[in-house]
Write a structure and sequence with these properties.
Elements lengths: L1 H6 L2 H39 L1 H31 L3 H31 L4 H25 L3 H88 L15 H42 L15 H141 L4 H119 L6 H14 L1
């Protein structure tokens, strides 16, 4: 069985492991679903059964207690209240509550039947309820006519209530115990389900981990061993041992392929060593002939595989090198003749370039003197422009000062007008004071001896008003004269501002002309500076050209000497019959 499992493919093994985990998980999920469904059903039965009945009986018990309290309250109201209508209305409410107890008795009887009470016990309880309700109705009816009798009847009514309440308490206690037992049962089932679920989950996790480790050892260990073998083969170790495990899955197929790869690499290595021996012998002979200057040597050995291209490339390279050397030998003499002509031409060019450089140097010196003169002129014009601008600024400031003075004069004139208005008001006050003093004197005269003191005061007031009027008139005349002088000053200052404005306009025109002259002078200086720079650059270029010509002359002479040396070196190579005839031609020309 184990061998059969080992021969399964890796995909099949992984599928089986996944199916095992899914089956265990599905079983756990089904158990949890059934457990939760059973608890849900029990909870629903508890909510619709004993809890509902317990709530019903508890509410009924509270209603009976409330009815007894209402009866006591009714008798208290009937004893202290003189309003018969109010007593009658409350009595009807109490009777209505007692009737509700009778109508709700059916639900209590059904609850008792569900809890296992016998019919006789239920009838006994119903009789107690009926006796209490009848007694309560009697008390309610009696309270509307005789409060004292109704109050005396409450003792018997309470006895009926206590008998009935004791029986009802037993029913409530029975329902409460039933509810508590049901909740305890559900809690126990839930705890048991939790324990079983946790245990099952632990078992599933343990099985999943075991399957993971088992499958890892079954798949990962052989793959790791094969990986090590392939790494050794990639490093060139063909003696590594590969164990054939006899498996037919992917691991077994990979092992077989690795063994075949190792054998193929070993065979290829042996073939490669044989080819290397042939290559070293044939290519080495060709390279040795090339080192001795023999360009007619070729590889004639048979090379296999990629080394056949090496033979073809070597033979083609030798053919091209032989052809090239033949052309070089044929053209060496032409290069020597051309080098001599270039040497003569460069000597002539060097002399002419030196003459041109001397002329440009003199021209550059003259342009430098002109440039210095133009720059000095431009600097003087720039200074004049700056002074004209300063004069313009001073004139502008003077105009602003004059404008400020004109504004101050206008303000003084306005203030003088306001002072004149105030003096007019003072004059009117003095006039009114004089009239009042006159009236006061008249009234004092009418009063006789009693108004003498008041008459004296009125006389002083009139005198004071007269002096105030005279002083106001003097101040008004002085202010009028001052206003005339201020108006004259405003006129003179305005004339001064107009004159300064005309001066500013003239200075602006002079400034514009000086600015245009300054710009023209700067443009001329810039243009001459550019010309000077260009001439300097031409001088430098000419000097560089002269140096380059001298270098070219030296290079041409050196080229002629190198050509002669090249001819001697080329005589070393053997390129065939044509090349040998070329060498003889060269030797005759040298002789």
């Amino acid at each position: 069985m184990t061998e059969t499992f080992h021969n399964f493919s890796i995909r099949t093994k992984l599928k089986l492991m996944a199916l095992a985990i899914v089956a265990l998980t599905a079983a756990l999920g089904l158990y949890g679903f059934l457990l939760l469904d059973g608890n849900a059903q029990k909870t629903a039965e508890l909510q619709t059964g004993v809890i509902t009945r317990d709530d019903l009986v508890s509410d009924y018990h509270d209603a009976t207690t409330q009815s007894l309290a209402n009866l006591y309250r009714l008798t208290s109201i009937a004893s202290s209240e003189s309003n018969a209508a109010k007593i009658d209305e409350f009595a009807k409410g109490v009777t209505k509550d007692l009737v509700a107890l009778e109508s709700g008795l059916g639900g209590v009887k059904a609850a008792m039947a569900k809890e296992g009470y016998t019919d006789s016990q239920i009838q006994t309880f119903a009789g107690l309820i009926a006796a209490y309700v009848k007694r309560g109705k009697d008390v309610s009816d009696m309270a509307t006519s005789d409060a004292a009798t109704a109050t005396g009847m409450m003792t018997g009514t309470r006895q009926h209530f206590e008998t009935m309440s004791s029986s009802l308490d037993q029913v409530v206690l029975t329902l409460t115990k039933h509810k508590a037992n049901s909740l305890t049962t559900i809690a126990g089932d839930m705890h048991q389900g939790e324990m079983v679920f946790a245990l099952s989950l632990t078992v599933i996790i343990a099985i999943a981990l075991w399957l993971s480790f088992f499958m890892g050892g079954l798949i990962a260990a052989p793959l790791s061993a094969i990986t090590d073998v392939v790494a050794s083969l990639s490093e060139g170790d063909l003696s590594v041992h590969v164990a054939d495990n006899g498996r037919t899955d992917e691991v077994g197929k990979l092992t077989t392929a690795t063994i075949r790869l190792r054998d193929q690499l070993a065979g290829a290595e042996k073939s490669k060593a044989d080819q290397v021996g042939i290559i070293v012998g044939s290519v080495g002979a060709g390279l040795s002939a090339l080192a001795n200057g023999d360009l007619t040597a070729r590889i004639h050995a048979e090379l296999a595989g990629p080394f056949a291209k090496l033979k073809t490339d070597f033979n083609m390279a030798m053919d091209r090198l032989q052809s090239t050397m033949k052309s070089v030998l044929a053209n060496t003499h032409g290069i020597g003749t051309g080098a001599g002509e270039i040497s003569q031409a460069t000597d002539d060019l060097s002399r002419r370039t030196e003459q041109q450089a001397a002329t440009l140097e003199e021209t550059a010196a003259a342009l430098e003197e002109i440039t210095a003169s133009v720059k000095s002129t431009a600097s003087n014009i720039r200074a004049a422009n700056e002074r004209a601008a300063a004069a313009k600024d001073a004139a502008d400031n003077g105009g602003k000062v004059v404008g400020t003075a004109v504004g101050a004069m206008d303000a003084i004139a306005q203030s003088s007008k306001k002072i004149t208005d105030i003096i007019g008001v003072i004059d009117e006050i003095a006039f009114q004071t004089n009239l009042l003093a006159l009236n006061a004197g008249v009234e004092a005269a009418r009063a006789g001896d009693a108004g003498r003191g008041f008459a004296v005061v009125a006389s002083e007031v009139r005198a004071l008003a007269g002096r105030s009027s005279d002083a106001a008139k003097q101040i008004k005349s002085l202010i009028s004269a001052s206003g005339q002088q201020v108006e004259a000053g405003v006129k003179y200052v305005g004339d001064t501002g107009a004159a300064l404005q005309r001066i500013v306009e003239q200075i602006l025109q002079i400034n514009a002309l000086v600015f245009e002259i300054s710009q023209a002078a700067e443009q001329q200086a810039s243009s001459i500076s550019q010309v000077n720079t260009a001439v300097g650059q031409m001088d430098q270029v000419t000097q560089q050209n002269a140096a380059m010509v001298e270098e070219s002359t030296a290079a041409a002479h050196s080229l002629a000497h190198e050509t002669e040396a090249l001819r001697e070196l080329m005589a070393f190579f053997s390129v065939g019959e044509r090349g040998e005839s070329n060498l003889r031609v060269v030797a005759r020309r040298r002789a």
